[in-house]
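Re: Re: ligand-bound prediction request (bumping)

Still looking for help on this. To restate: I need the protein modeled with pyridoxal-5'-phosphate bound, output as structure tokens. Inputs repeated here so nobody has to scroll up.
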Amino acid sequence: MSAPTAPTTPKVRGPARIHAAFAEAQAQGRAAFIPFMTAGYPTAAEFPAVADALLERADLLEVGIPYSDPLGDGPTIQRASEQALDGGTSTRRTLQLVADLRVRHDKPIVIMTYVNPIYAVGPREFMRLAQEAGVDGLILPDLPPDQDIEIAALAEEYGLAVTFLIAPTSTPARVRLVAEACTGFLYAVSVTGVTGTREGAALGEVPAMLALARQFAHVPIAVGFGVKDAATASQVAQQADGVVVGSAFINAVRDGQDVGALAAEIAEGCKKQ
Amino acid sequence: MTLKLSDLTLLLPDYPQPDPRGRFGRFGGRYVPETLIPALDELEEAYRNAKQDPSFLNELDRLLREFVGRPSPLYLAQRLTDYAGGAKIYLKREDFNYTGAHKINNCLAQGLLAVRMGKKRIVAETGAGQHGVASATAAALLGLDCVVYMGAEDIRRQELNVFRMKLLGAEVREVTSGTKTLKDATNEAIRDWVTNVRDTFYILGSVVGPHPYPAMVRDFQSIIGEETKVQLEALEGRQAPDAIVACVGGGSNAIGIFAPYAYLPADQRPRLIGTEAAGEGVHTGKHAASVAGGRVGVLHGSLMYLLNDDEGQIVPPHSISAGLDYPGIGPEHCFYSETGLAEYVPVTDAQALEALSLLTRLEGILPALESAHAIYYAVELARELGPDGIIVVNLSGRGDKDVSEVMRLLDLEKKLDSDKSVAQPQDQHVGDARKIEVNA
Ligand SMILES: Cc1ncc(COP(=O)(O)O)c(C=O)c1O
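Reply:
Sorry for the wait, this slipped through. Here it is.
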């Protein structure tokens, strides 16, 4: 666990840093604002500036490892992944990009990754690299916790939090199993579907899902998928501990919009009323 | 025990099931978004009940006989046998099935399950278009809405099947992400299912994907091997040949003929050989041979041998045949390979083309390009086993769908003008492609 030459040696990291960020947001009357960006998007050279702009407003930053077959993602993140991969950002490079951010930032950074990159690098090696890079936690969208219990144990060994997902289709038994496996925060998927800013994405299933999750979760609960602007963020923020916004930022980068301004707007929407 | 052919389709045999986590050994599982877990539980439960319900089994039995035309013949390919000059080569004629391949066995069964579960809409992925056509056919027959996802590259290669699906009333959605082939079509079908999970049934076309699909599709395809046992008994006085050869994409036609034999005691078990698509050669990197050229990884919900690089990105597969153009191989095959229950060998594009020409000229049977991979290896193996041996090849489908693509590849016109021997592939870059010539 010693990293004597690390550029920053924050007092807390991993699960503790994540929980502290949620607690601070709550103390300030906000749901934690958690923007997502695909690593290496739009290019590896431009990614750091995009991440800086997001981190300016974020309580936590979620960085996605570009993946060739992201079956939980809609067209926006698929295309961003393809572009980042074409630009040479794969698994190890993503961790390097996070390490570079860590030099300047103390906020929690979590990695969103499909499970295959972890297996390909080797679970232990992956955790070691992630820890070394200053990653605080992992979000695992295609790994139901009962599929591989060793991943969570390894993550813990390396001081990393794990986040698994629940969905509107989850039964009480599944919600319980998933919630109890999370050590960072619990991620509630707002709709049945993949990521992306669908037209008229309804958030009608969120209250019931959260009510169920509250019975079992001992960690904060963030809601994501289909949150695309300040209005939808505000709707979610009144109910959840955190709000995840992904595709909207990728679209903004793609269209050359001011990412910092959008982040400021959505962060404003995360206030509890 | 003697099996009567007329009894076969009435029972779905109880082969060893994967463990409670859906694993064959360490392979398989359910690596999918949590959204789908309840749907997979529901499917597993519905399948378990259906398997024990005579009304489901009788209806499936009726459709397999009267609609598909089962049993499919077991045919002694005498001229091919003579040509090879070794073991007897039998062909299990899945190309006789209505819609032209083994895929329909599985689609009707899953279609009936969909109806049973009250789902009104089905989605499917397709590579060669055979599974798409079979799904669209089942949907038409059972009155279900049908959406088929197909890669843009495959739409080009399999024009005829695209049109057939449309005629059958299915919507064909072109997939332009990634490599624009089967794996991307499968991603897209899964995304659709995640989104519409409450009213949609996903008809998966091979023994891949999350549990319970690999075991369920195996059971539905095992009719191929169960029939073979009875037919071979009648023809040769024994249920097991010396070897069985089948091509492997995801592995459904292969598992269908392997599974009834794979769990027999070692001294009764034939050699089971799956032919993987070696494309331009495993050493070139342009292939779809997951066992020979892959490493363990996760795709489409299952842990299996997979073409992926050392950072976990899927490596695009290559095969001349769209149906084998898949970067993984089903978990039960991985288990067979690891435990030695079956062997997996690579066969190149050029070798498959040769075998396609050979079988067509010698027997008047135009095989699917996929099945031609198995034919090639069977000829090799016949020589190795010698005249006392018996080989059964699973002829998984017919080649009508491939005619235009084969024509393009063989440049037939030129060849037909210049010689009367079997047309040779233009590409001679495959060093190990043995020349096959017909001595008329
Ligand atoms: C005729 C034929 N054979 C084989 C395959 C490969 O699939 P599997 O390995 O599941 O049998 C296909 C797939 O489309 C096919 O159409």
